[in-house]
Specification:
heterodimer, A: alpha/beta, Rossmann fold, Alpha-Beta Plaits, 2 domains, six-stranded mixed beta sheet, four-stranded antiparallel beta sheet, 11 helices, about 35% helix, about 25% strand, B: mainly alpha, globular, transmembrane (chain B), ABC transporter permease (chain B)
């Protein structure tokens, strides 16, 4: 049995002249929570759509659970639950009726799974309320319930926390962690809320302009996130001269707000504070800091926002 | 395949437009048959019998066509606009099976809508003035044959509407386009046939023309054969085209 749930090989999608995906080689190990990061239009949804069978690649191919033939891929997709772009619901049906439609569609025997799944996402008391009257958060939960119907082995979630209130975001995160931990469900999750993704993902893939720039584990990311000394003094220019001259440090940045990021001497901050004080500078802020996922992502895509 | 059909059937039963159409068609049929009875009686004529009302309701059957267009928009195309088609296409069922199941259940919906108006007209008139009789044919045979033909033609028409709905992928556009298409296609053939005789010949072998003939009493063998084969061929051919289009369609 393949240790990878999903692998893409030189996956390419061209719309007219534009590459939505360009030779993407992605791999998601069984049991991982894969955070898929990219700007709008970077190619996240295109890749998810190809994996889900909604679009076909212009070149390259995907392997799902080790299967890559068209017929086998269709079978493999029965092991996937997904929310693609937004939860797709029948507006004039209740939550229960929406789930019943999908239960029949997937050929899941017995109706017990419906109540169980509704309870899991906290929608067991919606009764006869039509989904068109649901809040965005409730729609997201119902979308997740539909994705979870039939106990999938691989969950694909495109912006699942959209519209959720802060408590809803926490609950969603805990639920996904629980599903991953207890049921061993592999999760591919794309989100713009990188701080949220940082609390959840075990692996990351960074995509930019259709190219997969990097794949790394959470541990690798933590190692790569640059640590630095955050310094604020009364005279940034003079401090920069001291850092460059007396401390012979070249890896630093003077930020527009006058603060300095010094990437050297992180383990020996005392030397820096002594040098700055000796130069007659008044230190207003001085603390070791680390970049987060957002800063790392921004640096990887070349500072574009 | 069975699970797909069950799912589609469940959705059809829950479809508000389908329920509304059933209600509207039933109410109009009831009103129309009672109105005809009262009107004729007041004019001093014999009220229409069950078989007369059945025959007049079969002619053209525009109610079936209008109902079918509305249902195509709500039952098929709206699934693209609401996005649920993504969930269906990503469910692991092959595209071919998905569209076949949808076409079959949609055809069933059209058959129900198509039968409703003539059936209620016939039943109410029979209750009010008796079944009546036909000069050259047994009523039972005529009724069974016309029901069978109506089923075939509803299925044939529905396969064309399914193709348009799959192309359009938007409820409003589908309803508008199918209505214009089905209501004016006869006019197109009539005008074009005047200048190009070949088109007139083609027209006589289409479901559009033959729909007007399904109420014919004691049809000759050739007409009956055409009325049986052409809707079946239409259903199969358009079914293949639907599958071909849907398999290549990028679902937004």
């Amino acid at each position: 049995m393949s240790e990878y749930v999903l692998k893409s090989n030189h996956l390419t999608k061209v719309y007219k002249q534009d590459y939505a995906l360009h030779r993407v080689n992605m791999s998601i190990r069984k049991g991982a929570i894969y955070g898929f990061i990219g700007q709008n239009g970077a190619g996240k949804s295109t890749l998810i759509r190809i994996v889900s069978g909604l679009a076909s690649p212009s070149d390259g191919f995907i392997e799902l659970f080790g299967k890559k033939d068209a017929q086998d891929l269709s079978e493999a997709r029965k092991r996937i639950g997904s929310i693609i772009e937004s939860p797709a619901l029948y507006p004039n049906m209740t939550a229960l009726e929406n789930l019943e439609t999908h239960r029949l569609l997937r050929g899941i025997p017995g109706k017990a799974c419906i109540e169980k799944t509704l309870t899991l996402v906290g929608l067991q008391h919606t009764g006869r309320k039509k989904t068109k009257n649901f809040s965005l958060g409730m729609k997201q939960r119902l979308g997740l319930a539909i994705a979870l119907l039939g106990d999938p082995e691989f969950l694909i979630l495109d912006e699942p926390t959209n519209g959720l209130d802060p408590m809803g975001v926490v609950e969603m995160r805990e639920l996904l962690k629980k599903l991953n931990r207890e049921n061993g469900i592999t999760i591919l999750i794309s989100s713009h809320i990188l701080s949220e993704l940082h609390l959840l993902a075990t692996h990351y893939g960074i995509i930019h302009k259709g190219e997969l720039l990097e794949q790394l584990s959470a541990n690798e990311l933590n190692g790569k996130c640059q640590h630095y000394l955050h310094i604020k003094v009364n005279d940034a220019a003079k401090a920069a001269a001291v850092i460059e001259g007396e401390l012979a440090a070249a890896e630093f940045e003077v930020m527009p707000d006058g603060t300095i990021k010094l990437y050297q001497y992180v383990d020996t901050p005392g030397k820096v504070s002594v040098a700055l004080t000796a130069a007659g500078l008044v230190i207003e802020q001085f603390m070791p800091m680390g970049e987060d996922l957002e800063a790392y992502f921004t640096s990887r895509i070349g500072g574009e926002r | 395949m069975n699970n797909l059909i069950q799912s589609e059937w469940y959705k059809l039963r829950k479809d508000r437009s389908f329920r509304a159409l059933i209600l509207i068609i039933s109410a109009s049929a009831l009103f129309w048959s009672i109105f005809q009875h009262i009107d004729r009686t007041m004019d001093g004529e014999a009220p229409p019998t069950g078989i007369e009302m059945w025959m007049s309701a079969l002619l053209g059957n525009y109610i079936m066509i209008i109902g079918m267009c509305v249902l195509a928009g709500f039952f098929i195309s709206s699934e693209y606009t609401t996005g649920v088609m993504k969930g269906i296409a990503a469910s692991g069922n092959t595209r071919g099976r998905i569209i076949v199941a949808k076409q079959l259940v949609y055809a069933l919906g059209c058959i129900i809508l198509g039968l409703l108006f003539p059936l209620i007209n016939g039943i109410v008139a029979t209750m009010l003035s008796g079944v009546g009789e036909l000069p050259d044919e047994s009523i039972l045979l005529y009724f069974v044959r016309t029901v069978g033909l109506l089923v075939l033609f509803a299925a044939g028409f529905s396969s064309i509407a399914t193709l348009i709905a799959t192309f359009m992928a938007e409820g409003g556009k589908t309803i508008a386009f199918t209505m214009v298409f089905f209501l004016f296609i006869d006019m197109f053939f009539a005008v074009a046939g005047r200048y190009i005789p070949f088109i007139e010949t083609i027209y006589s072998y289409t479901v559009f023309k033959l729909l007007y003939d399904i109420g014919t009493v004691s049809p000759d063998g050739s007409l009956l054969l055409r009325m049986i084969l052409i809707p079946i061929i239409t259903f199969v051919c358009f079914g293949i085209m639907n599958a071909w289009v849907y398999q290549r369609k990028e679902i937004k």
